[in-house]
Each structure stands twice: as C-alpha cells, then as structure tokens.
Write a structure and sequence with these properties.
This protein is 37% helix and 19% strand. It is globular and about 105 Å long. It binds one RNA strand of 89 nucleotides through α7, β11, β15, α10 and β30.
Amino acid sequence: MPDIENDPKQYDHQRIETKWQQRWDNTPGLYAADAESSKPKYYVLEMLPYPSGSLHIGHVRNYAIGDALARYKWMQGFNVLHPMGWDAFGLPAENAAIKNKRHPYEWTHANIAEMKRQHRRMAFSYDWDREVTTCEPEYYRWNQWFFLKMLERGLAYRKKALVNWCPECATVLANEQVIDGCCWRHETTRVEQKALEQWFWKTTAYADELLRDIDEKLDGKWPDRVLSMQRNWIGRSEGTEVDFTIDGSGEKVRVFTTRVDTIYGATCVILAPEHPLAQKLMDDAGRAKAKEMVDARKLQGPGEVGKEGYFTGAYAINPYSQEKVPVWIGNFVLMDYGTGAIMAVPAHDERDFEFATTYNIPIRQVIRHPDGGLELHPAKPFTEYGIVEDSGQFTGMTSAEARKVMSAFADGAGFGNAKVTFRIKDWGISRQRYWGTPIPVIHCEKCGVVPVPENQLPVVLPVDVEITGVGQSPLASAASFVNVKCPNCGSDARRETDTMDTFVDSSWYFYRYCDAKNSTAPYDSKKIAYWFPIDQYIGGVEHAILHLIYSRFFTKVMRDLGLIQNDEPAERLFTQGMVIRDGAKMSKSKGNVVSADDMITRFGADTGRLFGLFAAPPEKDMDWTDAGAEGSYRFLGRVFRFVARNAERLTTQESTSGAATGDKKALRKLHQTIQKVTDDFNQRWHFNTSIAGMMELVNILYEEEANLSGAALGQILPAITLLLSPFAPYTAEEMWELQGRTGPVFRQSWPVADEQLAKEDAAEVVLQVNGKLRGTIRVPFGADRETLEKAAMADPRVRASIEGKQIVKIVVVPDKLVNIVVR
RNA sequence: GCCCGGGUGGCGAAACCGGCAGACGCAACGGACUUAAAAUCCGUUUCUCCGCAAGGGGAGUGCGGGUUCAAGUCCCGCCCCGGGCACCA
C-alpha cells in the first residue's frame, strides 16, 4: 500500500498546498507590480468584492479567470498590475451591527481579514501593497474631495426628490431593499414615496458622451449585452418640442414628441397629473382627481395598469393647424420624462389609441402606409412610418422627411424646436444611513449650504454612534458631529447627516490602486497615465448598468477636471457567468453554497480553480457538481504523478527502453497543446477547451509513457508544468521543483510552440459520396486534385456507393475532402 | 411590446472560416490490480436497423422552409428558455 502521506510522488493536495502557501507567505512582494519598467504594462482587474464574510465557489471561479490571465501575462513578459480591495461601506454591516451588537467597523474588518486569508489560500496573485479599503478615511476623504469638485463645477446639486420610505422602520430604503413594492424587513408593509431634499450628481450632463462612446470607444471590446443594456438605460430619443397655446389665457404648454409628423392627427393634449399647469387649469374636483392618480401610481407595483384621464375643462391650440383640442390629465403621462405633457395622436400611437377609445376622443388618421391606402385597422393604430396625409403644406412627405422639416418649421415660427431627450436620470447619491461617506457640507441658517473647506477633509465618520435601524439617520443623533460652526460666518450650524451611496466608492477605486498610499491627492496623475486604461476588467454582468455607468461617468468627470487623460476606464470588459448548483444560483438562503474552505480541504485550491474554468466557458453560467470537481482532481493527480515519476527517471539518467517510438506523437501533441492554450488566452478565453487539450495531452503521455526518450521528456515535463501553472499554481510549483528547477513558476517564460513539430505528417482527407461520409484516407499535404480523385476512386467503400451511378461532379478541397456527386 | 443572449447524447460541454457532429469531462457498464474495498490503470458508451461475427446501412444539433457538392454553422418564417428595458410620448 502506497504511503500517500509521505510519498512525494503521490498527489497529496494538502501537503503540496500548505507547503507552498507557507513559502509564498514568506516572500514579500511576490506579486508586486513594478512602478517603472522597460516591459509593457498590463492592468488586469477583477471587480472588488463586498466583504460579506467568506469566499464561496462563485468568487473562486470569478477570481480564477483574472488570476489565470495575470499569471499568463507575467509569463509573457508584461509588467502586470493585479490589485484587490474591499467595497467596505454598505448596509449589511449596519444590519449586522443591529443584529449582533457589533460595530460595523469591527464586523467589516473581521470579514476582510477572513476573506484575505482565503484569497491567499487560493493563491490569487494580488499585489497586496496596493490594497484599498473604501471605509477608511484615507480613501473616503477623496470621495468628499470629488464631491466638492463636482459642487464647484455645478455637477452636484440639491433638490427635493421622491425616495422609498418604510413607515414601519421610519427610514429611507435603497431601491435594492424594496421587494415587490414592500419593505424587505416588513414584508407586508408597502413602501411609500416621500419627498426629501437629496443630493444629485449630474450624470445627465454626460448622457450624450456616455452614449456616443459606447459606439466609438467600447463597441467590440465590451460585451454586446452590456452595451445594449447601457444604451437602453441611457435611452436617447430624437424628437421635437412644440408649444400649444391654452385657449383664452394664452399660456403655453410645451409637449415633447418623437413623431411631429403626426401632429395634424393630435386630438387632445394630455398632461401629467402633477403638471403645474394642470393644477392651475383645474378646479378642486380636478385637483382631487389628480392627487388620486398620483397616489395610485405610488402604490402601483410593476406591470401595466389601465389608462385613466380627466378633462381639465381647458382647450389648447395646435400651432400647426390652429385647431382647438381639449386638455386632459392622464395617469400614464410621466412628469419626469420629456416635458411632462404630450399631444395625443390616437391613430398612430398605441397608448393614445387606448386612451381615446376609453374617453371617446376622435381618432384622426394622418399617416398612410407607403404602399397601401388610407385604411385604418378598426382595432389598432398604425404606428409605423409612412406618407403624411391631410397635413397642410406637409402633405405628401415621408414621415422621416416630415420630422425634420416640421421641426425646423417650428423653430422658424418660434413655437418649438428639435430636441434630444434622455431616459437616464441624475444620480441621487444621498442615503439616510450611517455606514457610508459623510457628505461634506454644512447647513447654515445665514449662508445656506456651505461646502466643508478642502483643508478640513476628511469629515470623519464618528465611531461612537448608536445604530438602531429605526428613525432618522444615526448621524443626526451624534451631537458632536452635527453641531458645528459655519466655516463662512462662524455662527452655529448643522452638519449634513446623509452619507453617500456606496456606488460612489466603487466608481473610482481602480484609480487609487495605482497610487494607494497617496495622502495629498487621490492619486498622482503621472501614475494613472502609465497604468490606464485598465487593459482587462472582469466582473459580473449584474453590474452592467449601475457600477459600469457610474465608473464611466466618474472617468469623464475626472478627465474634465484635468486629472487624467483617458476617456474610458477600461479598454476591455469581460463578464463572467454565475455558478449554479442544483439548478439555482448559489446563495445562503437556498442552502446550496459550497464554501471555498470546504473545497480547499476536500480537493484543494487548485482543483477548485481548475474545475471552475473547465466546466463551461467563463462567460457562461456553470453548474457546480462535486463529481465534476472530482474529475478535475483526478486530472491534476494524473499530470502530477506523470511528472513526478518521470522527473526521477530524467534525473537518474535512466534510458528508456522503447527506442523513443512515442516521441514523435507525444511531442506533436505537446506543441499542438501549447498552440491551443496560447490561442485561447489570446483570443476567446475558452479555458474549458485549453484544459481539455491538456487532458488529451496527458492521455497520450500515459499511452506512450514507456516509449518516450529522456530528451523528449526533457521538453515535455517543463512545458506541461508551465502550461498548467496559470490554472493550478500549487501543483505546477511542486512539479517545477520536482524537476530540480527554481521558481516561482509564474516568473518563467511562457512556452513557445514549434510549428514544425506540431504539424501532422499527413493530411487526413474525408471521402464523401453525395455529401455522405464513406471513408477517410491519409495523403501527403498538398496532394493535387488528380491524386486525391484517384485515391478516392480507389477506396472500396466509395466504389461500392458509386457503383452503377453516373458521376456528375467531383468537389476537391485540398488536404481536407473529396465529395463525389452521383446521380 | 422593444433590445440582447441561448436551444447539440443520460448530464456539463466541443466543433473558432460552411467540410468526419458529440473532443474533453461526469455518470453508467465491463476488465486489470487487490483476500476485499478504496485509490489507480485499461476499455465500452448518440439513437436505431441488418449480421453469429468482422462489418455495414439509416436517422440525428428546438420546429418548418430555403441556399449549397456539403448546413449545428448562412438566409427566411416560427416555437421555447434566460437576461435587460418597459405607459419614455
């Protein structure tokens, strides 16, 4: 019975991994990036985690992708920056504090320590000297600094806005804490909308550029689905704003439309119920009705609700046709999109059609199908482009033409203009929560809102605060924090008690990695110029909109502040799939989580990393199964034992018996595998096929083991060790040492394939009759048409299937195939 | 409704430019080693038909059409699944 515990030729993952873990822990700066280097730079980044407590397999797969890439790039001779940090502010820390009576700071740091230990145990190659923790004043003071810069530039402003409010908790909730319209802690309590003074950042100021650069800078480099989600979210529409005049009073009501070509078909104007003009035009009964609509909308869950309207009693004049149309309010008209008012063209818009049918408003057709008559389906509107009809001087134009001409006409006549409208809203960053960055302003009765002077930053989050989760922000009860003197006039003033959304923290952390210890600036611009843009950013697709739009916004703001030169944060983005187990995403509530620690004990870190990459291509969701992980474990054992026993054979100069008859086959496969793995790294990252390729190689090595020369082994052993090292660093390092070599293995050069050795020595040509496979032959590469035809005709199976038939045509693809077409 | 993905054996998947469908792995079955088991090593495994066998035939990549000597791959029309946006004028 082999003594696995003490036999170095057996694959004992515990022994190997603890041995190298210890050595690596005692090597400071093992994965440090060079500040300056003659090598080309490569910045590879995985999205920083929230320190929730411990790593599971989902994290492992995620980081294994970036780690394999970082190691590969090192071996390719790049100066690699591969940092890691902690998105450490946020609600779970506060909730844990309430539940466990532990301070968020303490809870967060305990989690960070634990997760960092696991990261090291997984052998993720981070430069820990650049670690960033967002809840430290050294970091968040720069959030405050950026806030002040935005305030100076008019990009930060304050306004009253609707927020989610739970009456039970008596506090504001983040959108993420509203589940199906109810509070997450009081599942039967509906969340209300409450108007509060909030701070906003003007993301809309960059809407145009954010959208344009999707096409100009990111297309083809970021995943399509992410770009398409961002396009949807930003939501640009080109249209026209037109003033209708209220009959009698002469007041104007401005509407926004993307279909000004249909305006002669407008049969009413509809205002949002909260529209100021609607309030003015209506009597008390009307205002009550409007309030009812607004209230109903607050309670309304997702999904469509029937159209409701109310006639204001007023009429408006269409400036194109001079026609007088009634003015309504409608529950489906949104105050915060466009102008909060629309013209209704029931004949050419689904919603207007539904509204008109409900309230007996006339339906007038003004667009004709380009190749049809003027017939309108009785039950639905015609919403496509066509030819304009019955529209005065614009009659006969195409819709596209009319949209341009009629916009210009409005402009000339002074009652409207072309207008681009975006769906994206400004970013509301205020949170009535404790565990976040204090917003650096002071409210003074005399001076109003006064920014905290730059030299007084950071505004430090006080530690001795009672967190109850109920009532106002915990900061409001910290007297020493709240009560300050106005920096302007010196009189008594109150400090702002809201904190910033945690998405602020993660919007620029990747810049801080370049200069993590800078105490006088967020970073040194020269260092950013060296490292940016991020060459490869890796993270979950769930961040496609929020984090990745905010980060792009922040980058553009920093650029306009003159701090950086890049327009976009990341050159390439990769979104990995989720880890699924028993048909569901891994989560604590489903009880299907596999912890990194369990996996490390059972199979080792290398197996976890390898299986995470082998089970599916990295952009797809993968199924975790213990049996599948065992397969990856078996593979690592197979490579390891092969290397271990043959390394010995090499070092003892023992000659092989089989006259090296296996060399050619094994070396050919070796060099094909080098090509394959290198290609996968350079192109698609389909590491599942890289690993499959290595498995095929190992299968051949087992077959030919007795027939390999020492010379061949001398090539094979180091090469396969290097190929494996980005995926299974522990196993590779041990194999490297067994060959008498000195590491670390990830600082060696990546192997280069020898094309001559990789080449097959004959072409395998497929023989078909009428497209059906009838056999294969091996012929020298480059054999000509005649030779191939002859060879095909000589094949007995081919002969049998063309027997007695007439040959119509012979298709020959050199080195590939002969297809004989018969009748 | 609109916009992105995707649909291939019992399962995860591969086939990258239109050229042998199912590499690699899991599971299952069989064999070797073992007192026995585990571990390890070696085989078989898309379905189906003919044959004692060696072997051979047919079908097959969600469905229906098309282009082509040749289609998982390209085109047209559907169905289903996942994700995003959604009364956005």
